[in-house]
Amino acid sequence: MVDAKGMIDRQTDVRLVQTIYNGAEIDLVIFKNGRRIGVKCKRADAPTITPSMRIALDNLKLDELQVVYPGEKRYILAKGVEVVPLAEV
Question: Using CA atoms, how far apart are residues 43 and 14, in angstroms rounded to an integer?
């Protein structure tokens, strides 16, 4: 993260991934305070869990996966997988 002075917060490491690793397609991986947080962007109004998301959680050893979408409701898809409205990001 970058603070108001333009300094890098060394506690957060953001990596753009947009790749496939053994079937795990993910858009962004954030390493923060020792945790791996995956981000998947979806255009769907009501995203559902996909095999690719399950593979990403396992193969990339994600602590959490956040699915960002254009809707308004925040909800849990599965253990470790949460749908988050774009307006909250």
Answer: 22
Per-residue pLDDT tens digits for 25-38: 788 888 888 899 99
Euclidean distance between CA atoms 50 and 62, whole angstroms: 15
Of 31, 32, 28, 34, nearest in space to 66 by CA:
28
Q: Which residues contact 34 (CB under 8 A, 6 or more apart)?
A: none
Structure tokens at 64: 């959490």
Q: Which residue has the tokens 């960002």?
A: 68
Topology of the domain covering 12-88 = Trna Endonuclease; Chain: A, domain 1 (3.40.1350)
